[in-house]
Specification:
The complex is a heterodimer. Chain A is mostly helical. Chain A has twelve helices and two strands, in the order αββααααααααααα. Chain A has one domain: MetI-like fold (Orthogonal Bundle). Chain A has a two-stranded antiparallel ribbon with strand order 1-2. In chain A, helix 3 packs across helix 9. Chain B has two domains: 44 residues, no CATH class; 232 residues, MetI-like (MetI-like fold, Orthogonal Bundle). Helix content of chain B is 69%, strand content 0%. Chain B has 17 helices and no strands. The longest helix of chain B is centred in the first third of the chain and has 32 residues. The chains are: A mainly alpha, B mainly alpha. The interface between A and B is large, with 108 and 112 residues.
Chain lengths: 312, 308
């Protein structure tokens, strides 16, 4: 490591090299972040362009006012959605990566087939799934109606739609997760597992006691990238597949918002879809920024715990 | 007994019982089906006639070229693809250059309060664009300040709602310039440069190389893995962006292909699913090529260091 021993003495050049990055970050990240806080305290309309200072009224509306039941539901289903995508997605990806890591004939070919969806986008996943599961002309329902005489309303039935969005979101992220898990698996020295085998550990015991702990730094990394994916990037998939709908069942008190509306989708709907109230959107942006901050702090606080760093 | 267990464990794979090997093959084929199934479906549907597309038939047809041509020309896919390509290349190139420069400054130059500057850059990892769109929208779309006085009074009041902006709605600038800096890039290059022996930089300096020569003839050739890894991450990220272009670009002929797919779905009375599937496949090709070409660099320069 060569920290702290600057080779070039010119201060001017150093700052000039940093300047473009700093200018872009200040203007296009810090300033909009500050503006989210500012706008959250205004009643402002995208279409009319009006701005009026109202203090914390937007937050009051979201937490206890007229919008509260809908927003509470959106927050709740965002959490359930993200937890499902992260937990199920990582479990399936790890299983696939373990399989791809086996030394069998054609393993290079299998690996290639399993990692290429790294390049897949949420919008493309949404596009293909909306045709596959189209109630009338979709392949899935055509096959189901031929074989069993049923044609589920995938996009109108709230629970089916929620499950479909979760499934499509997991499918889209498989390639990304398998790439990273496979890289981590290939880094694990084979002797460790062999030593455990000599001691009489069966395959499951070897997985629990050797492989899983050695993978924990990668799992930790993937939990956070997948959380960011489930919270923010899935937007394109939802917009194409369900547009945030359909409204949930009233029996479960989930009829205050579309069941596949996540927090970022609600922000978009309030700020840019239809009523264009940037104030509410700004307030939701502030809530999301604080949420990201809390998660980041947790990540740094608990980063060391339960995580095995091989060799230091 | 012990000897047998050792040989069984040591030769994991090749010496395994045939039944286990078959099971692994079957499970691998099943997982490949899960991963590639929907894409194969889209690919087959893209080759069929309109009538076949709406039937459950999964037999490839001969209409691929016609579907691609119609999507490309009539449904404007060609325009969306061109827009996405321009933006993705511009952002990837710009991000790489700016991150290289900043990473170099942080390792090889005397910068006062260096940890603060680095922390200031890293802090932006906590600001996802999707969350910032409310603030970003005003800044990018509003009219430019008409006079210098207006500009100065705007700068002097950063806590008032944005009065002026860049007037970039419907232009490429709106989806290029805000993304030119990268905390991930600066971080990766800084880590990489710190692992290069400092004697190399000293030697270069003794040989009379200035910072520019040092960057171009020593640092860049030694950083191909990091550059390749960053290029893959950024290209795929920019190519796949959806929310910001959806909000800021209102003119269809400036739209990117991800949002364009949704425009093709919702054109006309009935969705032409054959064209849409052809579009989805074409939209997947550029990032796939970049990923396949730079896969080795990506694995060595990022995937393997992510856990450290």
């Amino acid at each position: 490591m060569n920290e702290g021993t600057p080779v070039f003495k010119s201060r001017m050049t150093g700052w000039l090299l940093l300047l473009p990055t700093l200018v872009i970050l200040v203007i296009f990240l810090y300033y909009p972040a500050v503006q989210s806080f500012v706008l959250s305290m205004y009643r402002s309309n995208l279409i009319l362009g009006t701005r009026r200072f109202i203090g914390l009224e937007n937050f009051r509306q979201l937490f206890t006012g007229l919008l509260a039941p809908g927003y509470r539901q959106v927050v709740l289903q965002s959490m359930v959605f993200s937890a499902s995508v992260v937990i199920l997605g990582l479990a399936i990806s790890l299983a696939f990566a373990m399989l791809a890591n086996q030394k069998v004939t054609g393993s290079r070919f299998y690996r290639l087939l399993l990692i290429w969806p790294f390049a897949l986008s949420p919008a493309i996943a949404g596009t293909i799934f909306s045709f596959l599961f189209n109630p009338q002309v979709g392949e899935v329902n055509q096959i189901l109606s031929r074989l069993f005489g049923i044609a589920p309303r995938w996009l109108d039935n709230p629970l089916l739609a929620f499950g479909l969005v979760v499934g499509a979101a997991i499918w889209k992220e498989l390639g990304y997760n398998v790439v990273f898990y496979l890289a981590a698996l290939q880094n694990i020295p084979g002797e460790l597992s062999e030593a455990a085998a000599i001691d009489g550990a069966n395959a499951w015991q070897r997985f629990r006691a050797v492989t899983l702990p050695l993978l924990s730094p990668m799992t930790f990394f993937l939990v956070f990238t997948n959380l960011a994916y489930a919270f923010f990037e899935v937007f394109g998939l939802i917009d194409i597949l369900t547009k945030g709908g359909p409204v949930g069942p009233s029996a479960l008190n989930l009829d205050n918002a579309g069941l596949t509306t996540t927090m970022i989708y609600r922000l978009y709907q309030d700020g840019f879809g239809g009523n264009g109230s940037l104030g509410f959107a700004g307030a939701q942006g502030v809530i999301l920024l604080l949420l990201v901050a809390v998660i980041t702090v947790l990540q740094f606080r608990y980063g060391g715990r339960n995580v095995h760093y091989g060799g230091g | 007994m012990a000897a047998r267990t050792v040989s069984a464990g040591a030769s994991a794979g090749s010496g395994r019982r045939p039944r286990t090997r078959w099971l692994i093959h079957i499970l691998l084929i099943l997982s490949c089906l899960v991963v590639t199934g929907p894409i194969v479906f889209a690919l087959i549907k893209a080759t069929q006639t309109t009538a076949q597309v709406l039937s459950p038939s999964m037999v490839p047809g001969g209409e691929l070229w016609n579907n691609v041509k119609t999507a490309w020309v009539t449904a404007d896919l060609g325009i969306y693809m061109r827009n996405s390509l321009i933006i993705a290349f511009a952002v990837t190139l710009g991000k790489t250059i700016l991150s290289l420069m900043a990473g170099m400054a942080l390792v090889y130059f005397r910068i006062p309060f260096k940890p603060v500057v680095f922390g200031f850059i890293l802090l932006t990892l906590m600001m996802p664009t999707q969350v910032l769109i409310v603030g970003l929208f005003d800044l990018v779309s509003k009219q430019a300040p008409p006079t210098w006085v207006a500009l100065l009074s705007w700068i002097a009041h950063p806590l008032a709602p944005t009065a002026y902006g860049f007037n970039w709605s419907n232009s490429y600038w709106a989806i290029i310039v805000p993304f030119l800096a990268s905390a991930t890039g600066v971080f990766l290059f800084r880590q990489h440069f710190m692992s290069i022996p400092v004697s190399l930089a000293d030697a270069a300096k003794i040989d009379g190389a200035g910072p520019m020569r040092f960057l171009l003839s020593i640092l860049v050739p030694m950083s191909t893995n990091t550059i390749g890894a960053l290029a893959v991450i950024q290209f795929v990220y920019v190519w796949n962006q959806y929310l910001w272009p959806l909000v800021i670009i209102r003119r269809a002929d400036r739209q990117v292909v991800q949002v364009g797919l949704n425009l093709i779905i919702s054109t006309g009375q009935d969705t032409e699913w054959g064209l849409v599937m052809a579009g989805a496949i074409l939209a997947l090709i550029p990032p796939l090529i970049v990923f396949m070409l730079l896969q080795e660099q990506f694995m060595r320069g990022f995937a393997l260091s992510a856990e450290k």
